């Protein structure tokens, strides 16, 4: 008898077994680890098609990044240094021009200082000629400047400092001379102002100072002054300040005035028509002291003008400046 086997009977009874988690695949894990340690650089076209692929390990990538960062920092530093160097080069050109200008200025100053020093040496000679008439005892520094020794050749080109020092010494020396000359002129100014340098009247000179033929005896006689042509009652003015020491009449000169100008210098005015001052009066330069006439021993209207130094008659023309 044939026994039919049910389909169910043909199936092996299965036992429900809990699902087991998949076993880790060591090869796949290693691949994932390797993928984390590698980097890829793809070069693609514009349509997205890959062209070139570069694979890098992590150390290479890190080293490349560090190298790139270092290169960027180095390039930045070099660019900064180049900018500073360019600025320094520009400033150096500016300084070079300024130094050249200053050098030209210093050279010009040295030349000018040398010219001034030469000019002051000429002043020294001029001062020597000015002081010579007054005698060596009045020359400033003449008594305390003993010198001696051998001659030393000066350098052809002095430094700016030496040139300035020599110029300052010359200025100081000339300043002393000028101050001494100013003091002397202040003292001499009073004496010069007292000199009878102004014409008492303006006119032609009829008779000069010195020997002449007498208009009365036709014998040679000494004429102690000059006879100045003047119309009657022409104003006679004092040629310098002074004091009236005589105002009156003399047999020879008629109405006469005598002025004392100090320094043993006196002036005489003869043949006047009128006196405008009195004895003992102080008169100033240009002041009217009388009027010309024809009094005394005179052959016509004129002014007899005479200058006496220490009682001796001298040529008035030596004093007439204006």
Fold and architecture overview:
The chain has a domain at 205-318: Glucose Permease (Domain IIA) (Distorted Sandwich), CATH 2.70.70. It is 37% helix and 25% strand. The chain has three helices and 14 strands. Helix 2 (58-131) runs parallel beside helix 3. The longest helix has 74 residues, at 58-131. The termini are far apart.
Give the key terms:
Glucose Permease (Domain IIA); 25% strand; two-stranded antiparallel ribbon; single chain
Give me the secondary-structure topology.
Layout: H1 26-36, E1 38-44, E2 50-57, H2 58-131, H3 160-194, E3 205-207, E4 210-213, E5 220-223, E6 226-229, E7 235-237, E8 242-250, E9 254-262, E10 265-275, E11 282-283, E12 288-292, E13 302-309, E14 312-314
Short structural summary:
The protein is of the alpha+beta class and about 325 residues long. About 35% of the residues lie in helices and about 25% in strands. The strands form three sheets. Strands 3, 6, 7, 8, 9, 10, 11, 12, 13 and 14 form a ten-stranded antiparallel beta sheet that branches.
Global morphology: rod-shaped
**Total DSSP helices:** 3
CATH architecture descriptor name of one domain: Distorted Sandwich
- For the record, what is the CATH homologous superfamily label of one domain? Glucose Permease (Domain IIA)
Number of strands: 14
Helix content: 25-40%
The top level CATH class name of one domain = Mainly Beta
Q: What proportion of the residues form beta strands (DSSP E)?
A: 15-25%
**What is the H/E string?**
HEEHHEEEEEEEEEEEE
- Catalogue the unreliable spans: 1-17
The radius of gyration over CA amounts to 61 Å
């Amino acid at each position: 008898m044939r026994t039919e086997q049910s389909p169910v009977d043909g199936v092996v009874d299965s036992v429900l077994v809990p699902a087991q988690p998949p076993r880790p695949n060591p090869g796949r894990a290693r691949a994932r680890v390797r993928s984390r340690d590698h980097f890829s650089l793809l070069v693609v076209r514009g349509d997205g098609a890959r062209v070139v692929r570069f694979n890098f390990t992590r150390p290479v990538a890190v080293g490349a990044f560090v190298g790139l960062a270092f290169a960027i920092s180095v390039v930045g530093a070099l660019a900064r240094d180049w900018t500073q160097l360019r600025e320094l080069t520009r400033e150096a050109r500016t300084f070079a021009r300024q130094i050249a200008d200053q050098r030209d200025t210093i050279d010009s100053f040295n030349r000018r200082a040398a010219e001034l020093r030469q000019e002051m040496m000429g002043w020294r000679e001029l001062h020597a000629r000015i002081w010579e008439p007054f005698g060596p005892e009045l020359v400033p520094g003449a008594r305390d400047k003993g010198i001696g020794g051998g001659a030393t050749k000066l350098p052809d080109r002095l430094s700016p400092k030496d040139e300035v020092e020599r110029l300052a010494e010359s200025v100081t020396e000339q300043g002393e001379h000028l101050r001494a000359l100013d003091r002397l002129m202040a003292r001499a100014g009073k004496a010069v102002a007292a000199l009878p340098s102004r014409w008492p009247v303006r006119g032609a000179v009829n008779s000069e100072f010195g020997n002449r033929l007498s208009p009365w005896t036709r014998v040679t006689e000494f004429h102690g002054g000059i006879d100045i042509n003047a119309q009657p009652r022409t104003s006679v003015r004092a040629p310098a300040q002074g004091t009236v020491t005589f105002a009156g009449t003399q047999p020879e000169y008629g109405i006469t005035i005598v002025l004392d100008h100090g320094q043993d210098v006196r002036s005489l005015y003869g043949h006047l028509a009128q006196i405008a001052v009195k004895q003992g009066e102080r008169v100033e330069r240009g002041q009217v002291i009388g009027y010309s006439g024809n009094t005394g021993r005179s052959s016509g209207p004129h002014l007899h003008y005479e200058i006496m130094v220490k009682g001796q008659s001298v040529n008035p023309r030596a004093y007439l400046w204006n």
